[in-house]
Amino acid sequence: MPGPLLTVTVSESTRRGAIAGPLLIFGHGILELSLIAALLLGLAPLLQRNDVFVFISLVGGSILLWMAFSMFKSLPDLRLNLAPEDDKSRNLVITGIVFSLANPYWIIWWASIGLGYILHSVKFGVMGIASFFVGHILADLAWYTLISFGVAKGRRFFSDIFYRRLIGCCASFLVVFSCYFFYSGLEKIL
Predict the structure, then answer these.
(1) How far apart are CA 48 and CA 108, in angstroms?
(2) Residue 101 to residue 34: CA distance in whole angstroms
(3) For residue range 28-69, what is the model confidence (pLDDT) as tens digits?
(4) Residue 163 CA to chain centroid, in angstroms?
(5) How many Cβ atoms sit within 10 Å of the Cβ of residue 14?
(6) What angle do CA 161, 165, 169 make, to 5 degrees?
(7) Comparing C-alpha atoms, which of 100, 15, 58, 67 is closest to residue 171?
(8) How far apart (Å, rounded) are the C-alpha atoms in residues 128 and 142?
(9) φ, ψ at 22 (rounded to 5°)
């Protein structure tokens, strides 16, 4: 799903190389494991409430819109830095957690589809839940590693203009998803 995590994967892979995707997914996986534990410990009914859905949709839509606006604002001065990044000030594991949380789709997916998978997996005990989680996170790892590797290895073919357009497309996707979440939240209210 295009969203904040994919956007930061593309951006960080141009600076830090192919390792960016796996590190971001490590953080994403920590968050997902924590959420699975919370769901099993009783959080599930709260996430299924309409008022919580509306809150997540409106706040999440606002966050996505803010992120998109920030990206659009940076486009005129955005430059592709092909030198390996020496500045490790952004911890990619923490970034994976934060950018996953910033995506309302992530929370809504877990409150609906993900919860269904958990309820099915729990029938098979700890091994069922572990199998679901490992399969799910390995799929995320494979996809984001492929994206990160492709961007990192292909970055020498990127120009500043191409990079700006790529980040502009990612920002546009965030605007579309922001509008979708606003619409979904307002639809539940009305």
Answers:
(1) 9
(2) 12
(3) 999 999 999 998 898 888 877 889 888 888 988 898 899 889
(4) 20
(5) 22
(6) 170
(7) 67
(8) 21
(9) -60, -40
The candidate with the shortest Cα–Cα distance to 102, out of 19, 16, 181, 20, is: 181
d(CA 22, CA 27) in angstroms, rounded, equals 9
Confidence grade of residue 167 (pLDDT, cut at 50, 70, 90)? confident
Pairwise CA distance, residues 125 & 114, whole Å? 16
Phi, psi of 36 (to 5 degrees): -60, -45
Rg of the Cα trace of the chain? 18
Is the pLDDT score of 89 beyond 80? no
Question: How far, in Å, CA of 40 to CA of 60, rounded?
Answer: 24
**Numbers of helices and strands, H then E, in the chain:** 9, 0
Supply angle C-alpha 81, 87, 89, rounded to 5.
Answer: 125
The C-alpha atoms of residue 174 and residue 182 are separated, in whole angstroms, by 12
Q: Specify whether the CB–CB gap between 39 and 152 falls below 8 A.
A: no
Query: How far is it, in rounded angstroms, from Cα 159 to Cα 46?
Result: 47
